[in-house]
Amino acid sequence: MRIDGRCHCGFIAYEAEIDPEKVMICHCTDCQTLSGSAFRTTALTREGGFRLLSGALKTYVKVAQSGAKRLQGFCPECGSPICATSEGNDPKVYSIRIGTARQRDDLIPKAQIWCRSAQPWVTGLSSIRQLEME
Ligand SMILES: [Zn+2]
Ligand SMILES: [Zn+2]
């Protein structure tokens, strides 16, 4: 499935070819910190299936306890997280942060990972009082 998206300020624009069966929620603590939220929603591309249409990503290298490095790409102007990928120049799989995708309403998560670090209230969102903001 082809998607496209942009950061909040519009400096970054991209298109990607993602697998709609690989749309996931990640509850790991790194995703909580890096997204500034309770969890992250991502979609995996096919190899090489990400293309910048404008701007240039700033990259932060996250080192896992295992030593594995993940490149975290974000907009240098507004800080919107855009994608993550591995090091190197081979065709790579990208993990797109789907809150930036124009088609995000159609990208329904198929799985949740790192559930042991999930915030306990996320499974009961519908029980939290709902208010509409103007
Ligand atoms: Zn931006
Ligand atoms: Zn995560």
Can you describe this structure?
Strands 1, 2, 3, 4, 5, 6, 7 and 8 form an eight-stranded mixed β-sheet that branches. By secondary structure, this protein is mainly beta. About 25% of the residues are buried. The termini are far apart. The chain is globular and about 45 Å long. The chain is built from one helix and eight strands. The chain binds zinc ion (2 copies). The site of one zinc ion has 9 residues, from loops.
Task: Provide tags for this entry.
134 residues, mainly beta, eight-stranded mixed β-sheet, 1 helix, 43% strand, binds zinc ion
End-to-end span in angstroms? 33 Å
Round the mean pLDDT to the nearest integer and report it.
95
- Indicate the multimeric state: single chain
Q: What hetero molecules are in the model?
A: zinc ion
Compressed to H and E, one letter per element, the order equals EEHEEEEEE
How many beta-strand segments?
Answer: 8
Please compute the radius of gyration using only Cα atoms: 15 Å
Question: Main beta sheet, described?
Answer: 8 strands, mixed
User: Which residue ranges are poorly predicted, with pLDDT under 50 across at least 5 consecutive positions?
Assistant: none
Assess the beta-strand content as a share of residues: 35-45%
Overall shape: it is globular
Sheet/helix structural class: mainly beta
